[in-house]
Structure formats: structure tokens, C-alpha cells
Design brief:
The chain is an alpha+beta fold and about 425 residues long. The chain has eight helices and 20 strands.
Length: about 425
């Protein structure tokens, strides 16, 4: 009997958990202040205070009979119970979940607790990470006219307290660097919808943002595309704001799909004026053109609203040492000769017409001669003024000497008379 009893005790020997061990227990009671656990039917453990770690879903609403894990932080407290922590166990679980999400690229939820100009500061349970502006989904991307950084930050701050569905892009535990992406989740969820938009598809949408480089258009089922400034119209545009404003309705054609990015063109739906350029302009033709821009390599010239050409610097007839800025200015209209037309490439070559070349040189020469004459007249005038002043000075000096002489003579006469 004694041998059997010893064997029974040995088989059912209770191993007391040590600090740092993770144990499983069944919930006996649960409140906001504390949770009591039955450990293997022989030990009682308690989780209380900050160790409750209620942010983890599995610990948020515990009920009697549920089994959970906890970490031992003290082998025996004042009541002879194991002092346990959900926080430490939860933290390790959170890291395991984060590692798994990164490995399998599974979406998880993070909560925004702050923001800076670069993006959103977020937490996955108690683990902090970063969600850059560039990784926000289109609906949440802060498109601010003019790129005002203050307004961008204001928009980002409005997300504090909000949950975002994201993927883990970077997980570097040693550097404590975790980067999340909402855009990757959005791309994945929208892929089936995006696949419906092939190159050549015509859509109608609403302008959601106007930037220096183009216009963003919202269309379909929460889709968004970009019309680059070069695809807004066939004519030259200084600013997209000159053509469109937020709220405008536009029709456009899909010209490229890159992942979740859809690129559009408004000008594709309008007739290309270059198709008939040969009917309006011919090589050798003299045309009136307005200089739009003076560049070191030549002149950009507007022939009409849609057709622009280039007069290369070699076609401007500049003399040796003469600079392009010396003869030409933006806004002036002069005569050009058409040298080449390439409709498919949308290129038209020009050179300054001989008449205007001579006129420009003559005006420059006349201006130089005129300036020289004015300079000579000015010098001659100054010389005359100097001579006039010198003559007057001499005259004044003579008068002064004569006056002194008269004074001396009067004094001498008075003295002789007195004697």
C-alpha cells in the first residue's frame, strides 16, 4: 500500500510555477478590478490592476469557465495566491500575432493615437508602429490644394482614435521599427473591381482634388484615378486649376493601370488638332507666332490655341557672342518660317523669318547708336556746365579783389584827409 501511495503522489506531484512562466487557468471570477484563475485545480491565481491588459480582445470580456493564459510575476502574494499578468502574456501574444501577420501578409487592425506631418502613429495592442501618409488608402489620403503642410497635419490629426485595417510592411524588432500599410489592404480588396477597367475604358467621374501636376477623379465604386497635366488637354496648360475645380464632372479614358493606380486622359476624348496640322501649316510658310518662353536652347512659340512650335537657338540667327535674351522676350509676336512638321510626334520646327531677323538686329544697332549719341551729348553738356562754372568763379574772384582794393584806397584817402 505504501508503495502504491508513494507512486500516486509522485505521479500527481504539483509543480509550483516560477516567475516568468506562462500558465493556463480557468476563470473563476472576473471583474474590472481583478480576475481569479483556477490553475490545474490545486492553485489559485489572481490578475489585478494594470496587469489586466484589457486592450487584448481575448481578455476584454472574460466569463467564468473560460480558459486563458497568464504570466506568473510572483510565486506567492499576501493571500498565498499566484500573482499573474495578462499584460506580459498579452504582449508576447501580440508579438506572435504581429510576426504571423507579417509572414502571411494577413490584415490586422491598428488604432491611431497621434499624428505628425509624415503620417499616423498607431498601436497594435500595446505595440507601437507607423502608418506613412503614402500608405493610406485613397479615401483617407490628405489631398490639400497647394500642399499646405499645416492643413495636411490637421487632416491627419482628425484620425486620432480611429481604427485602420492594415498589413505589416516592415517588422524590425531589433530596431523597433514597424511600418504598416492601409493601401495594400485597399489594393487587395479592390483588385477585382480594378480588373474591370481596361485601357481604353471611358469613365465619368467627379474631381476630388486639383494639384500642380494634375487632377484626381473619383468614379465607379470608390475608385480614383489621376489625369496628369499633360493629359488634360491638347493645348499647353500652366496650371490644372485654370481648367478644373473640385466638384467638376469630367469624362476620361483609361490609358494605364499599374497595380491599384489608374491613369486617365481627358484629351484622348477630344479630336487631336495635330491630325490636321498639315492642312493649316506648310514647310516654308511665314507665320506670326507669339513667344511663350525663352530658353537657353530656343523659343517656345504659340501659333494658335493648340499648335505650338520650337525655334531652336541655331535657327535664331544670333551673332557671335550674342545672347538669346538680348533679342527676344516672352509675350512678343514676330514672324517665323515653318521648317518642319511631324504630326505623329506633335512637333513643329520654326526659324526666325529674315525680315524679323534684320529688324531685330537693326533695332539693336539703332538702340546702341542712340545710346552712344545720348552718352556723347551728356558728356558735352557736362563739359559746358563745367566751363560755365569755372568762368563764373574767376569773375567772382576778380570782383572780390576789386572790392578789397577799393576798401584800401578809401581808407588811405580818409587818413590823408585827417592829417
Amino acid at each position: 500500500m505504501s508503495e502504491e501511495f508513494a507512486k500516486l503522489i509522485e505521479e500527481n506531484e504539483v509543480v509550483v510555477p516560477q516567475a516568468g512562466d506562462i500558465v493556463k487557468g480557468v476563470v473563476v471570477t472576473a471583474s474590472k478590478a481583478e480576475v481569479k484563475l483556477d490553475i490545474d485545480g490545486v492553485l489559485m491565481g489572481v490578475v489585478r490592476g494594470p496587469e489586466l491588459y484589457n486592450e487584448a480582445d481575448e481578455y476584454a470580456d472574460l466569463k467564468p469557465g473560460e480558459e486563458v493564459e497568464a504570466t506568473v510575476i510572483e510565486e506567492e502574494n499576501e493571500n498565498g495566491e499566484l500573482e499573474l499578468s495578462f499584460r506580459i502574456a498579452g504582449q508576447e501574444k501580440a508579438w506572435n500575432n504581429l510576426r504571423e501577420a507579417y509572414k502571411d501578409q494577413k490584415p490586422i487592425k491598428v488604432k491611431v493615437y497621434d499624428a505628425n506631418k509624415g503620417g499616423l502613429l498607431v498601436r497594435f495592442r500595446q505595440i507601437q508602429g507607423f502608418l506613412p501618409v503614402s500608405q493610406l488608402a485613397p479615401d483617407n489620403y490628405p489631398r490639400v490644394s497647394g500642399g499646405d503642410k499645416g492643413k495636411i497635419l490637421e487632416k491627419l490629426k482628425s484620425f486620432v482614435g480611429t481604427e485602420f485595417k492594415v498589413k505589416v510592411m516592415t517588422l524590425d524588432e531589433e530596431e523597433d521599427k514597424i511600418i504598416f500599410s492601409e493601401k495594400e489592404v485597399w489594393n487587395e480588396e479592390q483588385q477585382d473591381v480594378i480588373n474591370q477597367y481596361k485601357i481604353g475604358t471611358v469613365i465619368e467621374g467627379t474631381v476630388t482634388a486639383v494639384t500642380d501636376f494634375g487632377v484626381f477623379l473619383s468614379f465607379g465604386d470608390s475608385m480614383e484615378g489621376l489625369i496628369h497635366i499633360s493629359e488634360l488637354a491638347w493645348k499647353r496648360i500652366d496650371s490644372p486649376a485654370d481648367l478644373y475645380k473640385v466638384g467638376d464632372k469630367i469624362k476620361a479614358e483609361v490609358i494605364n493601370v499599374d497595380g491599384a493606380k489608374i491613369f486617365l486622359s481627358a484629351k484622348k476624348l477630344a479630336k487631336d488638332p495635330w491630325e490636321e496640322v498639315g492642312e493649316k501649316y506648310k514647310a516654308g510658310q511665314i507665320v506670326k507666332g507669339k513667344i511663350l518662353k525663352v530658353n537657353p536652347f530656343g523659343l517656345f512659340v504659340e501659333l494658335d490655341e493648340f499648335i505650338h512650335g520650337l525655334a531652336h537657338i541655331s535657327q535664331l540667327g544670333l551673332a557671335s557672342g550674342q545672347k538669346i535674351d538680348d533679342l527676344y522676350n516672352s509675350g512678343e509676336e514676330i514672324d517665323f518660317e515653318v521648317t518642319s512638321i511631324e504630326p505623329k510626334e506633335h512637333r513643329l520646327g520654326l526659324k526666325v523669318a529674315k525680315e524679323d531677323k534684320k529688324s531685330a538686329k537693326a533695332e539693336k544697332k539703332e538702340e546702341t547708336v542712340s545710346d552712344k549719341k545720348d552718352e556723347e551729348k551728356s558728356e558735352e553738356k557736362e563739359e559746358k556746365e563745367d566751363k560755365k562754372k569755372e568762368k563764373k568763379t574767376k569773375k567772382d574772384e576778380k570782383k572780390s579783389e576789386d572790392k578789397k582794393s577799393d576798401t584800401k584806397k578809401d581808407s588811405k584817402d580818409k587818413k590823408e584827409e585827417k592829417e
